[in-house]
Amino acid sequence: MTVVRWAPSPTGRIHLGNARPALLNWFFARRNGGRYILRMDDTDLARSTRESADGIEVDLAWLGVTPDLLVRQSERTALYDNARDQLIASGRLYPAYETEDELDRKRARARLLGKPPIYDRAALSLTDEQKAAYEAEGRKPHWRFKLDGRPVQFNDLIKGPQTVNTASMSDPVLIRADGSYLYTLPSVVDDIDLAITHVIRGEDHVSNTGTQIEIIEALGGAVPTFAHHNLLTDAAGQGFSKRLGSQSISDFRDEGYEPLAIAIMATLTGTSMPIEPYPSLDAIAEKLDFSMISHGSARFDPAELDSLNARLLHTMPYEEAFPRLSSLGLEGEAIWTLLRENLVRFPDIAEWSKVVTGPIEPVIANEDQEFLALAKAMLPLEPWDETTWSTWTTALKGATGRKGKALFLPLRLALTGRHDGPELKSLLVLLGRTACLDRLP
Ligand code: GLU
User: What percentage of the chain exceeds 90 in pLDDT?
Assistant: First the structure.
């Protein structure tokens, strides 16, 4: 059974860059008939909030993802404490008493000597008396994991065979001096406890994977398969960031973008799968293989989002648009079919619908006054259908000799007040004779 997890830190609303692993995990779960766990990485009590966590659930649901299970790390401390005790007992987790200042000085000294700034493991040789003396001083230890210092190899489903050499790393701090857990241990413990089979996440976690595999092995857990995807950047090539207030998923929703358009942009940018309208997330899940994810960069293009969003709307069936249409007081399939072609974002319909419902400001050039007056006089009698437009304009052409733009544009400007817009042959039917007479001079 495939089991994946998406593990956001609830320290703000999620952005497009976060949506990428959220959805790539979903696609993988769907494709393999697996389970999807939403894991809130909320051990950082200073920065995590319940409000952010709730917002993430809302955003994920809006994107179309329904997790099979939600877990919060803040409610699972007992598991981490167990793992902590196990690692202490096996000698892999050790207390260290250096202050931030002392560590800074050590790193500066190493640099002066031309050595890499790796932690010197001084804490490993502290005697019990020295530890007791620190404690008596009121110092609380932080806890480091003792790395094996060997090359850790794993076969990444996206990036291929990887080697992370833990010999070039400092023993990572797993527990802060205040007893709180940093990301690494809870993540690993949960991956083991929840029987995660595949860890799909951003490539900024590749180097963490070495440490994590060592900890999993030290805890006797099964090592999952890893897949690290390229990170999405904004149009300027910068990473999205919650702190910098990069456009969040909820911003896109508020601006009226389609969730499917956001999902497609978040996942297919930087892959060899074309960015085009797909009917559903499942349709993408069926096609997207990890081999299609580029090893290079993935740069988000806002213009491409607009054009994709527009294409999704242009073919959207009436039934799908109906709830939003009726909330705007717009009903009828004909109006939707007429106007959808003009939309970039759904809310644009409020403006476009005025072309049908009015009021509009007819635009009438001086030199067209006479032509339009004739047009008014020649407006066919009802009943009208889709052929009425052609009957009317053919007759006008015969009477005036006007053709092409000179024939059609003054009619459009008078009937809609705009240079472009919906097809006039359909608009005419929706407007009816009375409204047309009103708009013509
Ligand atoms: N909370 C971590 C992050 O947002 C999760 C990383 C992981 O998937 O292991 O980066």
Answer: 95
Residue having the nearest C-alpha atom to atom 10 of ligand 1 = 8
Ligand 1 contact via 187 beta carbon (within 6 Å): yes
Residue closest by Cα to atom 3 of ligand 1: 8
pLDDT at 243: 64
Q: Over the stretch 378-430, which tens digit does the pLDDT of each residue have? A: 999 999 999 999 999 999 999 999 999 999 999 999 999 999 999 999 999 99
Residue among 314, 405, 415 at smallest CA distance from 355: 415
201 lines ligand 1 (CB under 6 A): yes
Distance (angstroms) between ligand 1 centre and the Cα of 203 equals 11
Q: Is 41 in the pocket of ligand 1 (CB under 6 A)?
A: yes
Q: What is the pLDDT of residues 69-122, one digit of tens each?
A: 999 999 999 999 999 999 999 999 999 999 999 999 999 999 999 999 999 999
Q: Is the CB of 203 under 6 A from ligand 1?
A: no
DSSP structural state of residue 248: B
Which residue, among 204, 226, 242, has the nearest Cα to 16 in the 3D structure?
A: 242
Do 68 and 190 reside in the same domain of the chain? yes
Gap between the terminal Cα atoms of the chain? 71
Residue 348 sits in the same domain as residue 370: no
Residue 191, ligand 1, Cβ within 6 A: no
Confirm or reject: Cβ of 186 under 6 Å from ligand 1. Answer: no
Tell whether 326 and 196 lie within a shared domain: no
pLDDT at 119: 96
Looking at this protein, which amino acid is placed at residue 25? N
**Using CB atoms within 10 A of its CB, is residue 123 exposed (0-12), middle (13-18) or buried (19+)?**
buried
Q: Do 333 and 186 belong to one domain?
A: no
Q: Are 144 and 166 in contact (CB under 8 A)?
A: no
pTM across the whole model? 0.92
**Domain range for residue 427?**
366-439
